[in-house]
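From the thread on structure requests for the teaching lab: each student submitted one protein with a one-line request. Submission from student K.M.:

"Model E3 ubiquitin-protein ligase FANCL from Astyanax mexicanus, tokens only."
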Amino acid sequence: MADNLLKESPLLVALDKNRTVYDGFISVQEKDFRLRISLPPDHQLKRAKLHCCWQLKQLLKNYQDIVKQCLIIYAFTSGQELALKSQPGWQSIPPPQYYSQLITEIEDLGWDKLLFIDTNFQSLQLKAEDSSGRQHSITVKLKSKYPGEAPECSADLPVPLVITWTSQSTLAHIHSQFLLIVEALAEFWAVLDEIDEHTWVLEPEKPTRADSMRRIAIGNNVSIKLEIDPRHPKMLPECCLLGAEHVVTPLRNKLNANMHLWNPDCSVLQNMKDVMEIEFPSPATHEKSSFSVECGICYAYRLDSAIPDQVCNDPRCGQPFHQACLYEWLRGLPTSRQSFNLVFGECPYCTLVTGSSCAVVII
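Reply posted by the TA:
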């Protein structure tokens, strides 16, 4: 507890070995004030005593009960190892009833739902758990006229977050609406969880709950991008095959020919296997390094967040490239030509391997 106190107020200094008395300065409304804090032997902040100058006392007039409640919250959040971070405060201190109402709402909602609250009581995070046990959080940024003014809410979701608010609404109303939203998306996340568990996902590298796209490895330099609809996750997703044309074309033909076999009662992954008549490599059968082939130009696998997604069409070559790298390469060749959104030119590998060749990049 004492360490947390010093971390949040670095201008306070312990005056005794037991760290029960602190003296120093705090900033209020962009002014520094002298403050002394006396802690009981058990270091519990909720029983701390504050000693300050008359100017600070005047500023805190009518806030005594609020300060005590804030110390209780600080003690609670420190014990739960929750984050308390200093952020730029408001230009003026909200009235006492703002803090009283906020603390009451947190107590009514339940302390176990609170993940984070900043030192200004302006921003907080609430946690929620859906029926499948997935953990979610919603960030709530309060306005100085709260609850008369609706707070700003944000969350890691694949759909827009819409929270209905009135002047009588509370944090409990936000939490209950958020629970309904994440529960409605449970099937969507179940589809993606199965894909993440049973296939090698190339992109995104670290999927979030808001990501609805997965690029799945099919083989060496061959993959498919699936865009799952959050509202209709069991339906046929948007598909984009990536790889050399001589490999991708047969797969695309099977996908188009067997699309009518799609069964909404089966999982998306099983449907993709049946429709394309393939088995996806999985962590149980393959190493991911088998599909992490570096770019033939920059010799790296990841370029910022991008991975190689352009492949030479010559079956004797099949070297992958980053789109950005290949575009720069082709743009520098006097023999390259452009047709609409395609650039044609010599593959930097084929000239070495086969003595000929053509590569294509979408720009």
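TA comment: The chain is about 30% helix and 20% strand. Residues 64-79 form the longest helix (16 residues).
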